[in-house]
Amino acid sequence: MKRPLVRFVLLGAALFALDRTLGAQLASEPPPFAPGSLVSDDELLYREATLRGWHESDAVVRRRLAMNLAFAEGERGRDEDALVRDALALGMHESDVVVQRRLVQKMRLAFAQSGRAQEPSEAELAAFLAAHRARWTEAPRVRATQLYFTTRARAEAVGAQLPRDASAALGLGEPLPFAAQLPSLSHAELARQLGAAFPDAAFALAPGAWSAPIESAYGWHRVFVHERTPARETPLATVRSEVREALLAERGDAAVRSALAQLRVRWRLAPDAGYE
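Now predict its structure.
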């Protein structure tokens, strides 16, 4: 009975001594930042990545460091492990922008992944769509025929000749580098083709009649509106994958912000660095 008891006591003493030794080592290591200092998000993410040892284990970083040191030495044949070990000893990872960006990106993605881990329910997707309805609402559209004239006077002069059948009037206008018969277009699409003022006038027209002269970026127009399509809410079934990705991206961003806030508390930093 005594021998197992002695072993237990010795093992406990050894574990206690080991714990004290590790604790002393950790306590002797200085924190990565001075308490209360202003630290950017990228600096914080980079330092957290190095504390996790990713500057030593990440394959992309290792290749980069080995390549840089081999180039600096002008030698060939040294294995990657030796090059990486020496590059880290020289602190090359601290001055390489590519290495820093890689570790910052990897750390940011790791934090974001925690927020994206849980699959959203149908109810959550529907609620997110409702909260961002404008993003997935089809814009109102207008389908029209336009006749182009270089001057207002010419556009006014043709008024008496305009037939009720818009297709019969196509020969009355002057040449323009796009079709007289416009497909169903949104306000933004009309603005890209004809200038910012034209869509306001076109969308104000009642279907089934010719307009007075309307100015565009090119000149003047007579416009016949065939039909107007009101704004239409896109159903979830149509945009489910887009809504899901947007919701997960928002959760990921929130997870990154939360992790950064926790790191600032952990290292007793200023709560808001004032910049990204």
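The chain has eleven helices and six strands.
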